[in-house]
Amino acid sequence: MKKMKSVPLNEELYNYILERFVPEDSLLNELISETEALNIPLIQISPEQGKFLTLICKLCNAKNALEIGTLTGFSGIHIARGLKENGKLVTVEIEQKHGDTAKKYFEKAGLKDKTEVVISPALDYMKILAEENKSFDFIFIDANKTNYPDYLEMAIKLSHPGTAITMDNMIKNGRVIEDAGDDEDLRFIQLTNDILSKDDRIETLLVPIGDGITLSVVK
């Protein structure tokens, strides 16, 4: 394939984008501060990724959304803000402290009625959802990387034609092109990217914002 022009994103350009298209949000800033105070790792998505998720939800007119990996609710707030007025986000988290913090900030954001936090191993809960024949319009995955291939397979089972599936950390700090060696997380991210690029049930693009986010549309 012939290479086309691509402009590297330096700090100045990045700040230009944030200043114009991702306005400061005092509630989200408060959430990040509390996350740090609770000694919870600051591994939430980037602000522009959050805006991206909101827009994708709006573009696909999403009503029902599923999130795998809540952390403290940063990404969940962005997703819920993009849902239809009567929409619902089910977000699955294994750590009780993380989930409790997310619930607190969902309520502060006025999203209590649009969100449900489930404390459970994600794959176990996804299997329950599949047994109940649940289907979602939008799915975001940002959890244990070694389970990414399994999360993806379950996400497709929980989808319908037109469902948008997004996955975070798909560039892995720029290391995705390196030899994974003993890095299990990197190896499974590389494997998942290979699956995403070849699976004929979905159409996918890896978008280089934040730590890389894939957007797949179910056929």
Sequence-ordered SSE layout with sheet pairings:
Blueprint lengths: L10 H11 L4 H12 L9 H13 L4 E5 L5 H9 L5 E6 L2 H13 L6 E5 L2 H10 L6 E4 L6 H10 L6 E5 L15 H15 L3 E6 L5 E6 L1
Parallel strand pairs: 1-2, 1-4, 2-3, 4-5
Antiparallel strand pairs: 5-7, 6-7
Helix pairs in contact: 3-4, 6-7
What is the number of domains?
1
> What structural class is derived from the secondary structure elements?
alpha/beta
Largest sheet: 7 strands, mixed
The helix/strand series, from N terminus to C terminus, equals: HHHEHEHEHEHEHEE
Task: Please characterize this protein's 3D structure.
This protein has helices spanning 11-21, 26-37, 47-59, 74-82, 96-108, 122-131, 148-157, 184-198, and strands spanning 64-68, 88-93, 115-119, 138-141, 164-168, 202-207, 213-218. Helix 3 (47-59) packs parallel to helix 4 (74-82) and helix 6 packs parallel to helix 7. The longest helix is centred in the C-terminal third of the chain and has 15 residues, at 184-198. Strand 4 (138-141), helix 7 (148-157) and strand 5 form a beta-alpha-beta unit. It is globular. With 219 residues, the protein is an alpha/beta fold. The mean pLDDT is 97. It contains eight helices and seven strands; from the N terminus they run αααβαβαβαβαβαββ. It has a seven-stranded mixed beta sheet, sandwiched between helices. It has one domain: Rossmann fold (3-Layer(aba) Sandwich), CATH 3.40.50.150.
List keywords for this structure.
7-stranded mixed sheet; 219 residues; alpha/beta; Rossmann fold; 8 helices; 17% strand
